[in-house]
Design a protein that fits this description.
Length: 169
Amino acid sequence: MAKNLKCSHCNNPATVHLTQIVNNKIIKVDLCESCAQAKGVTDPEGFSLADLLSKTNLTPEKGEPQITCPDCGLSSADFRRTGRLGCAACYQSFVPLLRPVLEDMHAGVVHKGKVPEIAFSRQSSEAELQTLENALQRAIEEEAYEDAAKYRDQIHAIKQAAEAEAVES
């Protein structure tokens, strides 16, 4: 679970985390203790996740302008009704609607992503290799042959280590 999740209803710290799979889609709701009790979450027979989800931040506020995606024509009313976006451009068009929902659902609104450790080490090695090759080229152009030999040896060592790693995998 992400840290510092807020209740989907009152923005207090969430202590109850519900997950349900409906039509092969994962639906998550985070609640504070008081909202969980008020919604009947502690009583499995009296709890309906669908009722809880229908009260999310996708309800329109009075005086809010109607937004329409310029690419696919999806309106904010259609988005609220279906809960789905029509195309990639919708993410930019519906930022005013999406930001509060994402803030309620996640610990942040910026996707940071993850890079597998082996891919990260390869990226680092490739970047270092490129830097050393550039430095080698400069050293040759400046006729700094001792520095060029040092860079050549470092490049050779990195390439050998990469080959050894490829053989192991």
